[in-house]
RNA sequence: GGCCCCAUCGUCUAGCGGUUAGGACAUUGGAUUCUCAUUCCAAUAACUAGGGUUCGAGUCCCUAUGGGGUCACCA
């Protein structure tokens, strides 16, 4: 069965990582069934509209490798895809409901509603509209309308009934209708609320499966009622687990890290890795496979395997591991491409310098090869390799700590400098450096640690680097000896 | 508070009446080693509690407890 899914974000801020998950599941369902994935902008709240957020959202989706068949940018058979451009449609349907007696005009002021809610809260009863305007006569309504009194249109929720529906994840669900408020359908500014707009649009756009976060579950009965009043067939509902931090029962929060989908890219995560990670936020194949490309995911994803648990944890530690895994499994060329791209887009913002960018590509690839398994994020590259491109700053005291005293440190450096000077340029290889260095170790009875760590530090300015002789071999004879001599002079 | 939902190693989870309760992350130990990583091997570690149903329950039912969602002219 061909499925049509939709992702319906509201342009009220940044694109949340949870929305990326919803989009991914929508995409997989549509693509996996040969159907269409549509994007629809739910911009019915004018007060919260954020300039440029639609464009940023589309870009983020593309950056993650997702595409859509219909949407605000490309249009489609059910134009337009901005709800703000469909006002007439919602109005028409709302009026149809009023006509049939399933909705009614309400002229209550927001002030009155607020007071009403406060009273109800104080009494400890369900907060809902008291139906003050339900029984206004046609005359009164007409008069109010003519006077230009602000109004809303409310759904007339039937009393004393259980509203039942089926969710594909949770199964049969039932809500007592008496707890459901007479939801506003059309706001006083003429815009529809979410509830009216989704139902109308999902129907008109022939959406077959509605995927959304679990927070929507309690308002689904309202939608069910709307489908019933309109006499429309309902789509399948699929409510997804909420996202939360590991070690916390709280929702995902900015304080513990990014929640913005685009920010992960900025922070050096690979889109493939984030996507792979996001796939498992509420779903898993029931097998032990956990590395998934988008294509594989589209093939394996099924609604049946979506978790029933309330929340799925966003394990940042695991995301980091996964990202490192992806980095290590890329070919050198692919990885270099990603490093370059990251630096082009984000290094300035991140405040790091892409020294390798000005250097020889062949050399760069060798450098990358040495550090790749030490990288968990793309942004770590620049710091990891800086000493290949510029002389390090070294600290005298620090250089001495490996051998215990300054005299010995100088001695080590001098002896190795001398030994290395005897190696010809052609013989300046990892194997030779290794052989000669070890023989010097024996000759002077240095421990491997004191000697090699001293050399490592004065040449690179770092305590941890790739294997020492790989580093020296790549750095070249001249550069290595320059640095050793410089260290010697500053230490004496 | 009302309504609704959920409950397995430290963490994320698999499990859909009979399993030595599986995997991954993390942790610890070992191998490799000049450091840091990587890689490989190994170890530790879980069914919230109490009642039922059943020959047999992590799995089905009830209750308690715990957690979460939601109660707007926001989505």
Walkthrough of the structure:
This protein has 492 residues and is mainly alpha-helical. It is 47% helix and 10% strand. It is built from 20 helices and eleven strands. The strands form five sheets. A three-stranded antiparallel sheet has the order 3-4-7. Strands 1-2 form a two-stranded parallel ribbon. Helix 16 crosses helix 17 (430-444), helix 16 crosses helix 18 (448-460) and helix 17 (430-444) packs across helix 19 (468-475). The protein is elongated. The protein starts with a strand and ends with a helix. The protein binds one RNA strand of 75 nucleotides through helix 4, strand 6, strand 7, helix 6 and strand 11.
Task: Give the structure's gist in a few sentences.
The chain contains 20 helices and 11 strands. The chain is mainly alpha-helical. The strands form 5 sheets. A 3-stranded antiparallel β-sheet has the order 3-4-7.
Topology:
Blueprint: E1 4-7, H1 17-32, E2 36-39, H2 53-63, H3 87-100, E3 103-106, H4 110-123, H5 138-146, E4 152-155, E5 162-167, E6 171-176, E7 184-186, H6 194-204, E8 209-213, H7 220-230, E9 236-240, E10 242-245, H8 261-266, H9 271-279, H10 294-300, E11 311-314, H11 316-329, H12 332-350, H13 361-371, H14 381-389, H15 396-400, H16 406-421, H17 430-444, H18 448-460, H19 468-475, H20 477-491
Parallel strand pairs: 1-2, 8-9, 10-11
Antiparallel strand pairs: 3-4, 4-7, 5-6
The protein binds one RNA strand of 75 nucleotides through α4, β6, β7, α6 and β11.
What distinguishing features does this structure have?
three-stranded antiparallel beta sheet; RNA-binding; 492 residues
């Amino acid at each position: 069965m061909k499925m049509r899914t939709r992702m319906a974000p509201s342009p009220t801020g940044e694109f949340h990582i949870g929305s990326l998950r919803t989009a991914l599941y929508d995409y997989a369902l549509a693509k996996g069934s040969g159907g269409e994935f549509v994007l629809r902008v739910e911009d019915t709240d004018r007060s919260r509209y954020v300039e440029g957020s639609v464009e940023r959202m589309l870009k983020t989706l593309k950056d993650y490798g997702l595409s859509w068949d219909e949407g605000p940018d490309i249009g489609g058979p059910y134009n337009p895809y901005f709800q703000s451009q469909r006002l007439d449609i919602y109005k028409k349907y709302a009026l149809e409901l009023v006509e049939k007696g399933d909705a009614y005009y309400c002229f209550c002021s927001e002030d009155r509603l607020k007071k009403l809610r406060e009273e109800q809260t104080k009494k400890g009863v369900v907060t809902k509209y008291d139906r003050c305007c339900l029984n206004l006569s046609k005359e009164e309504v007409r008069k109010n309308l003519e006077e230009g009194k602000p109004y809303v249109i409310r759904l007339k929720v039937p009393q004393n009934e259980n509203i039942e529906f089926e969710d594909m994840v949770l199964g049969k669900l039932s809500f007592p209708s008496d707890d459901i408020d007479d939801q506003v359908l059309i706001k006083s500014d003429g815009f529809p609320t979410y509830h009216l707009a989704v139902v109308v649009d999902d129907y008109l756009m022939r959406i077959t499966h509605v995927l959304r976060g679990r927070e929507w579950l309690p308002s689904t009965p309202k939608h069910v009622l709307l489908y019933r009043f309109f006499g429309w067939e309902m789509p399948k509902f699929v409510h997804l687990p909420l996202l939360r931090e590991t070690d916390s029962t709280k929702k995902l929060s900015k304080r513990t890290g990014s929640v913005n989908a685009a920010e992960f890219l900025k922070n050096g995560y690979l889109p493939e890795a984030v996507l792979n990670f996001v796939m498992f936020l509420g779903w898993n194949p029931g097998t032990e496979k956990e590395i998934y490309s988008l294509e594989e995911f589209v093939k394996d994803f099924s609604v049946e395997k979506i978790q029933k648990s309330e929340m799925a944890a966003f394990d940042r530690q695991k995301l980091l591991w996964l990202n490192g895994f992806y980095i290590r499994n890329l070919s050198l060329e692919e990885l270099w491409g990603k490093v370059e791209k990251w630096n082009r887009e984000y290094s300035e913002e991140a405040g790091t310098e892409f020294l390798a960018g000005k250097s020889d590509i062949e050399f760069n690839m060798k450098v990358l090869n040495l550090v790749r398994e030490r990288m968990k994020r793309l942004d770590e590259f620049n710091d990891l390799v800086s000493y290949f491109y510029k002389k390090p700053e070294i600290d005298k005291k620090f250089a001495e700590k490996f051998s215990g005293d300054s005299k010995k440190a100088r001695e080590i450096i001098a002896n190795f400098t001398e030994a290395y000077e005897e190696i010809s340029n052609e013989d300046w290889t990892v194997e030779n450096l290794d052989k000669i260095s070890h023989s010097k170790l024996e000759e002077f009875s240095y421990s491997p640690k004191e000697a090699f760590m001293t050399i490592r530090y004065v040449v690179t300015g770092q305590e941890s680097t790739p294997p020492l002789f790989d580093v020296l071999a790549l750095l070249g004879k001249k550069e290595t000896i320059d640095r050793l001599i410089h260290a010697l002079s500053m230490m004496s």
